[in-house]
Amino acid sequence: MVLIGLTLPAKAEEPSAPPAVEEPAGYREDVYRAPVPATLSGATVVTTAEAHALWEGGNTAFVDVLPRTPKPADLPAGTIWKEKPHVSIKGALWLPNTGYGKLAGVTLAYFRQGLEKATGGDVNAPLLFFCLPDCWMSWNAAKRALSLGYTRVYWYPEGSDGWAVAGYPTETLRPEPGGE
After folding, report:
1. pTM for the complete prediction?
2. What is the pLDDT of residues 38-64, one digit of tens each?
3. Which of 1, 26, 113, 170 is most solvent-facing, going by the fewest CB within 10 Å?
């Protein structure tokens, strides 16, 4: 049998790797859910396995900086607002809203107090920052910790989602008091 006029489909192009994201000189101040750099100058970037090893070691404070879901402004009077539970890495300290590029003085003070609590006031104690994959909040928070003089800063870009997918222990967190 002869097939005339048969053309094979063109070879599908290989998907290209996303372009590398460069570290900005300052903090990221918009579009926080976007591809992040592979590096953070002054910090150690860790994989899920490396984060888990630090967690198992028990000497590193894990700091979740995922923002709280804001209460909708247009709720009818008398409506009860109930936040969605925040499931994160077991034992982490949740300092919501501290990963924005610009922080109000009260939020910066809350961040400082949270880090002091997490480290016992020791700027040489190890701190690991995270939120979600492709989230600049943890990148900003880790960079800010470095600017505050913390010397052993880890950044875990895969965040609580990467942790949960690996099957590591999680729990529902409550925000550290004082950040309202």
Report:
1. 0.86
2. 999 999 999 999 999 999 999 999 999
3. 1
